[in-house]
Amino acid sequence: MIDTESFRIGQGYDSHALVAGRPFFLGGVELPAEAGAMAHSDGDCLLHALIDAILGASARGDIGQWFPDSDPAFKGVASSELLATVLADPEVGRFRIVNLDATVFLDRPRLSPHRETLQASLCRLLGLEPGRVNLKAKTWEGMPWAAALVAASATVLLAPA
Ligand code: MG
Predict the structure, then answer these.
(1) pTM value?
(2) Cα(12) to centroid(ligand 1), Å
(3) Distance 58 CA to ligand 1 centre (A)
(4) 8 alpha carbon to ligand 1 midpoint, in Å?
């Protein structure tokens, strides 16, 4: 019988301002873009939302506690490294990820040509098969900040490892 008490769900959200001329990272991939995130790290808001979802599900706090943006050690750091650090935590390691469902809010670049690349990157970073990782893309639907903001939300389900 499944012990449903041993499952954990977590959600994460992140957003970054977009600035012309900066590299644009999403889901562990650098995508061709005219603007990239203003951030202390590489500004990968999808991985930041994912990290917060994992930390939330395992009751381990939030990304700001783990990797303060006041710490020079994390300046320009690849968010995939931050994710690897979280996944290596013994308390987080008591669980395995059952599935990830994520949504990115972004006008440009359009994500449809990159969806498979991004999903493959998330699968690789998490060690999950494609059927456990879903990525959804939404535009800002004409909101006034559409060109200047990227945001992402992520939900994960964890089960005992
Ligand atoms: Mg962030």
Answers:
(1) 0.97
(2) 11
(3) 19
(4) 23
Name the residue among 161, 9, 155 with its Cα closest to residue 96.
Answer: 161
Please report, for the chain, how many H helices and E strands are present, in that order.
4, 7
**For residue 6, how far is its CA from the centre of ligand 1 (angstroms)?**
29
pLDDT tens per residue across all 161 residues of the chain: 778 889 999 999 999 999 999 999 999 999 999 999 999 999 999 999 999 999 999 999 999 999 998 999 999 899 999 999 999 999 999 999 999 999 999 999 999 999 999 999 999 999 999 999 999 999 999 999 999 999 999 999 999 99
The stretches of the chain forming alpha helices (DSSP H) are 45-57, 63-66, 79-87, 115-126
